[in-house]
Amino acid sequence: MSSRALAGLRIAVTRTSDQASALVRQLEREGADVAAFPLIRIEPVLSAAELANRLRQGWDWVVFTSANAVRMCALALEAQHATPRDVLSQARIAVVGPATAAAVRALGLEVAAMPDRFVGDEVVAAMQATSDLARRQVLWPRAEGARDVIENALRAAGAAIDAPVVYRSVPDGGNARRLARKILQHDIDVVTFTSPSCVRSLADVLPEMRGVKVAAIGPVTAEAARAAGYPVDVVAAEHTADGIVRAVVQVLGAG
Predict the structure, then answer these.
(1) 158-181: per-residue pLDDT in tens?
(2) 42 neighbors 167 (Cβ within 8 angstroms)
(3) pTM, to two decimals
(4) Could you tell me which of 109, 87, 96 has the C-alpha nearest to residue 63?
(5) How far apart (Å, rounded) are the C-alpha atoms in residues 197 and 209?
(6) Are residues 158 and 51 in the same domain?
(7) Among the three residues 168, 185, 216, which one is the final residue of a domain in this structure?
(8) Residues whose CB is less than 8 angstroms from the CB of residue 138 and which lie 6 or more positions away in sequence, other chains included
(9) Sheet of 61-64: strands edge to edge?
Protein backbone atom coordinates (compact mmCIF):
# COMPACT_ATOMS: atom_id res chain seq x y z
CA MET A 1 0.00 0.00 0.00
CA SER A 2 1.25 3.49 -0.85
CA SER A 3 2.26 5.82 1.96
CA ARG A 4 1.56 8.87 -0.25
CA ALA A 5 4.67 10.31 1.37
CA LEU A 6 5.38 12.43 -1.70
CA ALA A 7 2.04 14.25 -1.76
CA GLY A 8 2.49 17.83 -2.92
CA LEU A 9 5.92 17.28 -4.49
CA ARG A 10 6.26 18.13 -8.18
CA ILE A 11 8.70 15.62 -9.66
CA ALA A 12 10.24 15.51 -13.14
CA VAL A 13 11.08 12.13 -14.70
CA THR A 14 13.75 12.44 -17.38
CA ARG A 15 14.29 8.93 -18.72
CA THR A 16 13.37 7.85 -22.25
CA SER A 17 9.68 7.84 -23.13
CA ASP A 18 9.47 4.05 -23.48
CA GLN A 19 10.98 3.57 -20.00
CA ALA A 20 9.40 6.47 -18.11
CA SER A 21 5.89 5.13 -17.54
CA ALA A 22 6.73 2.67 -14.75
CA LEU A 23 8.66 5.28 -12.77
CA VAL A 24 5.90 7.85 -13.30
CA ARG A 25 3.27 5.41 -11.99
CA GLN A 26 5.32 4.50 -8.93
CA LEU A 27 5.90 8.13 -7.99
CA GLU A 28 2.24 8.97 -8.55
CA ARG A 29 1.23 6.12 -6.23
CA GLU A 30 3.28 7.88 -3.57
CA GLY A 31 1.23 11.02 -4.12
CA ALA A 32 3.66 13.02 -6.27
CA ASP A 33 2.58 15.31 -9.10
CA VAL A 34 4.74 13.83 -11.87
CA ALA A 35 5.65 15.19 -15.29
CA ALA A 36 7.74 13.34 -17.88
CA PHE A 37 10.44 15.19 -19.79
CA PRO A 38 12.37 12.55 -21.78
CA LEU A 39 15.79 14.15 -22.13
CA ILE A 40 17.28 11.59 -24.51
CA ARG A 41 16.30 9.43 -27.46
CA ILE A 42 17.89 6.07 -28.23
CA GLU A 43 19.24 5.57 -31.74
CA PRO A 44 20.96 2.54 -33.29
CA VAL A 45 24.60 2.75 -34.32
CA LEU A 46 24.96 -0.55 -36.18
CA SER A 47 22.61 -1.61 -38.94
CA ALA A 48 20.23 -4.45 -38.13
CA ALA A 49 22.18 -6.76 -40.44
CA GLU A 50 25.52 -5.90 -38.80
CA LEU A 51 24.21 -6.40 -35.28
CA ALA A 52 22.36 -9.61 -36.13
CA ASN A 53 25.55 -10.99 -37.69
CA ARG A 54 27.51 -10.21 -34.50
CA LEU A 55 24.87 -11.92 -32.38
CA ARG A 56 25.06 -15.08 -34.51
CA GLN A 57 28.77 -15.71 -33.82
CA GLY A 58 28.22 -18.46 -31.24
CA TRP A 59 29.09 -16.66 -28.00
CA ASP A 60 29.74 -18.34 -24.67
CA TRP A 61 28.43 -15.25 -22.86
CA VAL A 62 26.41 -12.19 -23.83
CA VAL A 63 26.49 -9.27 -21.38
CA PHE A 64 23.61 -6.79 -21.26
CA THR A 65 24.05 -3.66 -19.17
CA SER A 66 20.79 -1.96 -20.13
CA ALA A 67 17.30 -2.78 -21.30
CA ASN A 68 18.04 -0.56 -24.30
CA ALA A 69 20.79 -2.93 -25.43
CA VAL A 70 18.40 -5.87 -25.10
CA ARG A 71 15.79 -4.04 -27.16
CA MET A 72 18.28 -3.08 -29.88
CA CYS A 73 19.44 -6.69 -30.23
CA ALA A 74 15.88 -8.01 -30.35
CA LEU A 75 14.88 -5.47 -33.01
CA ALA A 76 17.95 -6.29 -35.11
CA LEU A 77 17.19 -10.00 -35.05
CA GLU A 78 13.51 -9.41 -35.78
CA ALA A 79 14.48 -7.35 -38.84
CA GLN A 80 16.50 -10.35 -40.03
CA HIS A 81 13.56 -12.74 -39.44
CA ALA A 82 15.13 -14.34 -36.37
CA THR A 83 14.40 -14.30 -32.65
CA PRO A 84 16.68 -14.02 -29.61
CA ARG A 85 15.66 -17.54 -28.59
CA ASP A 86 16.77 -18.85 -32.00
CA VAL A 87 20.14 -17.12 -31.84
CA LEU A 88 21.12 -16.82 -28.17
CA SER A 89 19.61 -19.87 -26.49
CA GLN A 90 23.04 -21.54 -26.20
CA ALA A 91 24.76 -18.48 -24.74
CA ARG A 92 24.87 -17.64 -21.06
CA ILE A 93 23.37 -14.22 -20.36
CA ALA A 94 24.73 -11.77 -17.79
CA VAL A 95 22.79 -8.65 -16.83
CA VAL A 96 23.45 -5.58 -14.72
CA GLY A 97 20.19 -5.60 -12.75
CA PRO A 98 16.53 -6.59 -12.51
CA ALA A 99 15.17 -4.23 -15.19
CA THR A 100 17.62 -5.63 -17.72
CA ALA A 101 16.89 -9.15 -16.48
CA ALA A 102 13.17 -8.59 -17.03
CA ALA A 103 13.84 -7.43 -20.60
CA VAL A 104 15.92 -10.57 -21.25
CA ARG A 105 13.32 -12.92 -19.76
CA ALA A 106 10.56 -11.25 -21.78
CA LEU A 107 12.38 -12.58 -24.86
CA GLY A 108 12.26 -16.14 -23.53
CA LEU A 109 15.91 -16.22 -22.43
CA GLU A 110 17.35 -17.22 -19.06
CA VAL A 111 19.65 -15.06 -16.95
CA ALA A 112 22.80 -16.85 -15.78
CA ALA A 113 24.47 -14.05 -13.80
CA MET A 114 23.36 -10.83 -12.11
CA PRO A 115 25.31 -8.95 -9.43
CA ASP A 116 23.92 -8.15 -5.99
CA ARG A 117 24.85 -4.51 -6.54
CA PHE A 118 23.29 -3.31 -9.78
CA VAL A 119 26.30 -1.55 -11.29
CA GLY A 120 28.38 -2.55 -14.28
CA ASP A 121 31.55 -2.94 -12.23
CA GLU A 122 30.05 -5.97 -10.48
CA VAL A 123 28.84 -7.88 -13.55
CA VAL A 124 32.11 -9.65 -14.29
CA ALA A 125 32.46 -10.82 -10.69
CA ALA A 126 28.96 -12.30 -10.91
CA MET A 127 29.94 -14.12 -14.10
CA GLN A 128 33.13 -15.46 -12.51
CA ALA A 129 31.09 -16.80 -9.60
CA THR A 130 29.40 -19.18 -12.04
CA SER A 131 32.29 -20.20 -14.32
CA ASP A 132 35.88 -19.61 -15.35
CA LEU A 133 36.00 -16.92 -18.04
CA ALA A 134 39.41 -17.81 -19.45
CA ARG A 135 39.24 -18.20 -23.24
CA ARG A 136 35.47 -17.69 -23.22
CA GLN A 137 33.98 -15.76 -26.13
CA VAL A 138 32.02 -12.82 -24.74
CA LEU A 139 29.83 -10.29 -26.53
CA TRP A 140 29.00 -7.01 -24.82
CA PRO A 141 26.63 -4.91 -26.99
CA ARG A 142 27.03 -1.52 -25.37
CA ALA A 143 26.10 2.12 -25.49
CA GLU A 144 28.27 4.79 -27.02
CA GLY A 145 30.33 6.33 -24.25
CA ALA A 146 29.99 3.36 -21.89
CA ARG A 147 32.85 3.04 -19.43
CA ASP A 148 35.55 0.46 -20.19
CA VAL A 149 35.35 -1.18 -16.76
CA ILE A 150 33.53 -4.31 -17.97
CA GLU A 151 35.69 -4.76 -21.05
CA ASN A 152 38.89 -4.35 -19.03
CA ALA A 153 37.73 -6.77 -16.33
CA LEU A 154 36.77 -9.40 -18.90
CA ARG A 155 40.16 -9.13 -20.60
CA ALA A 156 41.87 -9.41 -17.21
CA ALA A 157 39.88 -12.60 -16.60
CA GLY A 158 41.20 -14.05 -19.85
CA ALA A 159 38.02 -13.74 -21.90
CA ALA A 160 37.96 -12.88 -25.59
CA ILE A 161 35.68 -9.85 -25.65
CA ASP A 162 33.86 -8.13 -28.50
CA ALA A 163 32.27 -4.85 -27.35
CA PRO A 164 30.49 -3.22 -30.28
CA VAL A 165 28.72 0.10 -29.78
CA VAL A 166 25.14 -0.69 -30.78
CA TYR A 167 23.23 2.42 -29.70
CA ARG A 168 23.70 6.00 -28.67
CA SER A 169 21.75 8.42 -26.49
CA VAL A 170 20.80 11.58 -28.37
CA PRO A 171 19.82 14.69 -26.38
CA ASP A 172 16.23 15.86 -26.78
CA GLY A 173 16.81 19.59 -26.78
CA GLY A 174 13.12 20.48 -26.90
CA ASN A 175 12.27 18.58 -23.73
CA ALA A 176 15.44 19.85 -22.05
CA ARG A 177 14.42 23.45 -22.71
CA ARG A 178 10.87 22.79 -21.50
CA LEU A 179 12.15 21.27 -18.27
CA ALA A 180 14.64 24.11 -17.80
CA ARG A 181 11.81 26.64 -18.09
CA LYS A 182 9.75 24.75 -15.50
CA ILE A 183 12.70 24.71 -13.12
CA LEU A 184 13.41 28.42 -13.59
CA GLN A 185 9.71 29.16 -13.00
CA HIS A 186 9.89 27.17 -9.73
CA ASP A 187 7.33 24.66 -11.02
CA ILE A 188 9.49 21.61 -10.21
CA ASP A 189 10.58 20.43 -6.76
CA VAL A 190 12.58 17.30 -7.66
CA VAL A 191 14.37 16.15 -10.82
CA THR A 192 15.13 12.45 -11.16
CA PHE A 193 18.05 11.33 -13.30
CA THR A 194 18.46 7.71 -14.39
CA SER A 195 21.56 8.05 -16.59
CA PRO A 196 24.51 10.38 -17.14
CA SER A 197 23.13 11.08 -20.63
CA CYS A 198 20.00 12.61 -19.13
CA VAL A 199 22.14 14.82 -16.90
CA ARG A 200 24.23 16.05 -19.81
CA SER A 201 21.14 16.78 -21.91
CA LEU A 202 19.74 19.14 -19.26
CA ALA A 203 23.13 20.64 -18.41
CA ASP A 204 23.49 21.72 -22.04
CA VAL A 205 20.64 24.21 -21.51
CA LEU A 206 20.64 24.69 -17.72
CA PRO A 207 24.15 25.14 -16.30
CA GLU A 208 22.91 25.72 -12.74
CA MET A 209 20.28 23.94 -10.65
CA ARG A 210 18.98 26.02 -7.75
CA GLY A 211 16.01 25.48 -5.49
CA VAL A 212 15.40 21.98 -6.84
CA LYS A 213 16.29 18.62 -5.32
CA VAL A 214 18.20 16.15 -7.50
CA ALA A 215 17.69 12.39 -7.22
CA ALA A 216 20.06 9.98 -9.01
CA ILE A 217 19.47 6.30 -9.70
CA GLY A 218 23.02 5.39 -8.67
CA PRO A 219 26.57 6.60 -8.06
CA VAL A 220 27.60 6.89 -11.72
CA THR A 221 24.64 9.14 -12.50
CA ALA A 222 25.22 11.08 -9.27
CA GLU A 223 28.84 11.63 -10.28
CA ALA A 224 27.70 12.98 -13.66
CA ALA A 225 25.26 15.35 -11.95
CA ARG A 226 27.94 16.70 -9.62
CA ALA A 227 30.33 17.09 -12.56
CA ALA A 228 27.64 19.21 -14.25
CA GLY A 229 27.47 21.42 -11.16
CA TYR A 230 24.19 20.01 -9.85
CA PRO A 231 24.07 19.27 -6.11
CA VAL A 232 22.76 15.75 -5.48
CA ASP A 233 20.31 15.18 -2.64
CA VAL A 234 19.29 11.55 -3.19
CA VAL A 235 21.24 8.54 -4.50
CA ALA A 236 19.37 5.25 -4.72
CA ALA A 237 21.05 2.32 -2.96
CA GLU A 238 19.31 -0.06 -5.38
CA HIS A 239 19.89 1.20 -8.89
CA THR A 240 16.38 0.58 -10.25
CA ALA A 241 13.12 2.49 -10.62
CA ASP A 242 11.91 0.90 -7.37
CA GLY A 243 15.14 1.92 -5.71
CA ILE A 244 14.97 5.56 -6.72
CA VAL A 245 11.34 5.81 -5.56
CA ARG A 246 12.22 4.30 -2.18
CA ALA A 247 15.18 6.66 -1.82
CA VAL A 248 13.12 9.73 -2.70
CA VAL A 249 10.43 8.68 -0.21
CA GLN A 250 13.03 8.09 2.50
CA VAL A 251 14.92 11.35 2.00
CA LEU A 252 12.25 13.76 0.79
CA GLY A 253 8.95 12.20 1.84
CA ALA A 254 6.67 13.60 4.51
CA GLY A 255 7.03 11.93 7.88
Answers:
(1) 999 999 999 999 999 999 999 999
(2) yes
(3) 0.81
(4) 96
(5) 17
(6) yes
(7) 168
(8) 59, 60, 61, 62, 63, 154, 159, 160, 161, 162
(9) 92-95, 61-64, 137-139, 160-162
